[in-house]
Specification:
Number of domains: 2
Number of strands: 11
Order of helices and strands: EHEHEHEHEHHEHEHEEEHE
CATH topology of the largest domain: Rossmann fold
Largest sheet: 5 strands, parallel
Distance between the termini: 24 Å
CATH architecture of the largest domain: 3-Layer(aba) Sandwich
Structural class: alpha/beta
CATH class of the largest domain: Alpha Beta
Radius of gyration: 22 Å
Strand order of the largest sheet: 2-1-3-4-5
Number of helices: 9
Length: 280
């Protein structure tokens, strides 16, 4: 994988270069750093013929080709790509027309771009879910494994485990955190290794048993701290979850280990939606 999110780029189309730059910066600050910008809507179709795109955000009023015409053309050839129409005016009739043509959403340009970033993120999540569902359906119907070598260390003749393997292949490339549960000794780490193999992420898989680690140091290492958060915190420091290595780790805590002593000592319990690793 290229280490960027999403794996395929988000395409922004607007005839105002300044808006393209500001929206691109807003997306990157929100963790969406794989972005392509075009100022001419007529260049979209040639680009799609060569480059897979995850989502499109396009201005409604552009010279050469309107946003509505762009939706119609893209939806005819790439119906799976979500298109978000962005306009400087709140026009209910235009919004209805765009949705009927196949647009995923209709948003108004504002100085606060958080709503636009959230709209793009929502479109990416929905497309990822659809892709996973399609992969699951295909795997179950064909009863095949695309990467059987990923599971070669798990010895089983169980039909239920084969279904688990098919599910792992369907969700392995997802950017969402994966929770693996089970009693001690059932093979959670082996399954996590299989997830890492299927994901296509580069680098070594790193299993860590956190049962014996100090709670406060553990939380600070993972999530970092702000300057002045405690005595000796002379500068802010980003946590380990911000690094690329975090996406290929497996954290385990045995049933006999102690529980965190306070709500602040175990950050991943409160950040389950943002923690990019397999956990148990």
């Amino acid at each position: 994988m290229n280490g960027m999110y999403p794996h395929n780029p988000v395409l922004l189309v607007d005839d105002e270069p300044s808006w393209l730059r500001s929206f691109t910066l807003a997306l990157r600050s929100g963790g969406i750093d794989n972005v392509i910008g075009l100022t001419d809507a007529r260049e979209v179709e040639p680009l799609l013929a060569e480059t897979p795109v995850e989502a499109i955000a396009a201005d409604l009023s552009m010279p050469g080709m309107s946003g509505e015409e762009l939706i119609e053309r893209v939806h005819a050839t790439h119906p799976d790509i979500p298109i978000i129409v962005v306009t400087g005016m709140s026009q209910v009739e235009a919004a209805v027309r765009c949705i009927k043509l196949g647009a995923f959403d209709f948003m108004v340009k504002t100085y606060d771009k958080s709503s636009l970033v959230n709209g793009i993120r929502h479109a990416l999540e929905i497309r990822e879910l659809r892709r996973e569902n399609a992969s699951l359906k295909k795997s179950f119907l064909q009863d095949t494994l695309k990467t059987p070598e990923a599971f070669e260390h798990i010895v089983t003749c169980s039909k239920a485990m084969r279904l688990v393997f098919q599910y792992v292949e369907a969700v392995g490339r997802s950017t969402q955190p994966l929770l693996i549960t089970g009693e001690s000794g059932v093979g959670k780490e082996l399954l996590a290794r299989a997830v890492h193999h299927v994901s296509g992420r580069s680098g070594e898989f790193v299993p860590v048993n956190v049962a014996g680690l100090d709670d406060n140091i553990f939380a600070d290492t993972l999530f970092g701290h702000r300057k002045g958060a405690f005595t000796g915190a002379d500068a802010s420091r980003s946590g380990w979850w911000k690094t690329p290595e975090a996406a290929r780790s497996f954290w385990t805590r045995s049933a006999t280990s102690r529980r965190p002593r306070s709500s602040s000592s175990c950050g991943w319990c409160r950040n389950a939606n943002t923690c990019p690793s397999a956990r148990t």
